[in-house]
Write a structure and sequence with these properties.
Helices cover 52% and strands 9% of the residues. The protein has five domains: 169 residues, P-loop containing nucleotide triphosphate hydrolases (Rossmann fold, 3-Layer(aba) Sandwich); 62 residues, Helicase, Ruva Protein, domain 3 (Orthogonal Bundle); 110 residues, Zinc Finger, Delta Prime, domain 3, CATH 1.20.272.10; 85 residues, 2-Layer Sandwich (GMP Synthetase, Chain A, domain 3); 42 residues. It is an alpha/beta fold. α6 links the parallel β3 and β4. α15 packs across α21. It contains 24 helices and ten strands.
């Protein structure tokens, strides 16, 4: 028999084997025991949490010849046929590749026919949000009043893309992320059964890397087991997954705590180019999060206690800086440079550094109710296209409120993504959480565009005055009977 990967071999075949979705399992078993079978179900959740697995188990229960306490027997012909993917009355369709109206109509043409050997005919449509608008419209009538022998099941990772008209016809079941503890328990059972040696630290690393997905945990385990030759050790697992060791993370946190720029320079001089800069930043942010929570906890048993001396405001600031810079790693050609600038920014923006800095504080950028928006726009870390839009804006800052005024044709171009970018950059720049609003009451003489044009005019006039005072030029213009303005026009 060919080798089965862990994710397929340990795919749940009974409700009792499903990990981390007790609320969904309980709801389905109760409806089966009470004989309240819905005409359509929609399973919503991120990847690898059990959407299609639960749908398949529900199909087995509905068609099983010997149901006991809401569980399929997993021994009858119907259960075995579904396990082997040979049940003729069960169709699993991938909406990502079969999304057109014509394919949906071909599927619906088979609905009126009675099941060949089962009690119910089940249609499972995976990634249903990928269907076209026309496909959804074709489904509506059949979904509202299907034949009594037909049950529809949908699975999606993006339920917000499914039309409300479809959702209103389905029983919606939301699957949650599997907790790290549940993943660890399941992995330990699997590894013991598969005779794989492991330590607790390895399981913790794998469960954290899985980000709540049981399937991802098993896929990661497959890779790690192959590398470690079925003997998992913490260092090897970190190596395979590109996770930096704790010593490096704590060293960076010490640097941030002490605002030690010399140590930061030395850190990057000795930095291993094979290490993932993004993983290092993410690990640092995870530790910062743990320290922040520890500050409000009564626990005194932690190796992070010495970092609780850092102020909550500073921890929030460096976490926000890390969060806003993390998105640039995927497109950056120099991740090491990006990481170093992110850490320098964390130190430079600390309250202590700001007090000692010779650079003018953000509060000095404005007097009374105005500030130098032209200077700030040049310094703030915004994308090029967004800066071009804001070039025509005037901005006011009143306490922790920012009012951005733009022309009507420009304000419509500020979408939600741009608003998030503006909010993040302004919060970082002013070192405070700001409330940002938008209107069309532009003060034209305060816009960077106006200031730029005025500066050009001023420079041009100064140049004209300078040339006009030149004795040689005066002689030429007197002979030609003209002046500098007429020459410049010509």
């Amino acid at each position: 028999m060919s080798y089965l990967v862990l994710a397929r071999k340990w795919r749940p075949k009974l409700f009792s084997e499903v990990v981390g979705q007790n609320h969904v399992v309980q709801a389905l078993q109760n409806s089966i025991l009470n004989e309240k079978i819905n005409q359509a179900y929609i399973f919503n959740g991120t990847r690898g949490v059990g959407k299609t697995s639960i749908a398949r188990i529900l199909t087995k229960v509905l068609n099983c010849e010997d149901v006991k306490k809401g569980e399929p027997c997993d021994k009858c012909n119907q259960c075995l046929a579904l396990n082997e993917n040979s049940l003729i009355d069960f169709q699993e369709i991938d909406a990502a590749s079969r999304r057109s109206r014509e394919e949906t109509m071909n599927l619906l043409e088979t609905v009126p026919y009675l099941p060949a050997s089962s009690k119910y005919k089940v249609y499972l449509i995976d990634e249903v949000h990928m269907l076209t608008k026309e496909s959804f419209n074709a489904l509506l009538k059949t979904l509202e009043e299907p034949p009594p022998h037909v049950i529809f099941m949908f699975a999606t990772t993006e339920i917000e893309k499914v039309p409300a008209t479809i959702l209103s016809r389905c029983l919606q079941l939301n699957l949650r992320l599997v907790s790290e503890e549940e993943i660890i328990d399941q992995l330990s059972k699997i590894f013991i059964h598969e005779n794989i040696k492991f330590d607790e630290a390895s399981l913790k690393i794998i469960s954290k890397a899985a980000s709540g997905s049981m399937r991802d945990a098993l896929t990661i385990s497959e890779k790690v087991v192959s590398y470690c030759n079925e003997d998992l050790k913490k260092e090897d697992v970190q190596n395979v997954l590109g996770i930096p060791n704790e010593e490096k993370v704590f060293k960076l946190l010490d640097i941030l705590k002490d605002k030690d720029t010399t140590a930061l320079v030395n850190f990057f001089e000795d930095y291993d180019e094979n290490d993932s800069c993004q993983n290092l930043l993410e690990s640092l942010m995870n530790v910062i999060q743990e320290v922040s929570l520890l500050q409000f906890s009564k626990s005194q048993d932690s190796n992070l206690l010495k970092y609780t001396e850092m102020t909550p405001e500073y921890l929030q600031l460096i976490f926000q800086i890390g969060l806003s810079n993390k998105i640039y790693f995927e497109s950056s050609s120099d991740p090491k440079g990006l990481l170093s600038m992110t850490l320098i920014k964390m130190i430079a923006f600390s309250p202590e550094e700001k007090k000692n800095s010779k650079v003018t504080s953000s509060n000095n950028f404005y007097k009374d109710s105005s500030f130098d928006w032209n200077l700030i726009l040049n310094e703030i870390d915004l994308s090029v296209l967004l800066k071009q839009i804001l070039f025509s804006s005037s901005v006011k800052k009143i306490d922790n409120k920012i009012i951005i005024s733009l022309p009507e044709d420009k304000i419509t171009r500020i979408n939600e993504e741009y608003k998030k970018e503006i909010s993040s950059c302004f919060n970082n720049y002013f070192n405070q959480i700001l409330e940002i609003s938008y209107d069309s009451n532009v003060e034209v003489d305060r816009t960077p565009l106006f200031i730029k044009d005025e500066l050009k005019i001023k420079e041009s006039n100064e140049a004209v005055d300078l040339i006009s005072k030149d004795e040689g030029f005066k002689k030429i213009t007197s002979e030609l009977n003209t002046d500098i303005k007429n020459i410049s026009k010509k």
